[in-house]
Amino acid sequence: MDLKAKNLENLTAMDIAASAEIKGKLVKAGVKCGSSTIDKFLTLAHKLRSKITILDKIIIYMLRIRGDISEEQRNAFLVVAVLVATATYQAALNPPGGFYQANAGYNNQNTSSGNVSEGKAGTSVMSQVYKRLQGYRLLDCEGENR
Question: Is residue 36 situated within a structural domain?
């Protein structure tokens, strides 16, 4: 294959190449331009790209090793992540104070206080407390505005 072959317009394959990818392949094959220098056809990326030396490769490898975590650390992070996810899931399913029960009879022997408020079965016990806390918070905010 003649790498310096020219067409009727005195252009080589390098002169005709339209894309940077084709130009890069032709440069690697050793094709020379017929009417101009190769530098004219090289893109800025090709000019700025530097060759990685063996020393650079060794330094990059050592930095990657240093950045890796050990298997024990990875397992510890995994355990912590699972515990956080479990606690979040549990808090969503069982809110603090639990739920009001459907058949909670108040004539139970274990009830120490006769002052038990009845809630709708299946609603959160803390929802009643939260509503009261919201009321106190609103009253507190009104006091600060005066």
Answer: yes
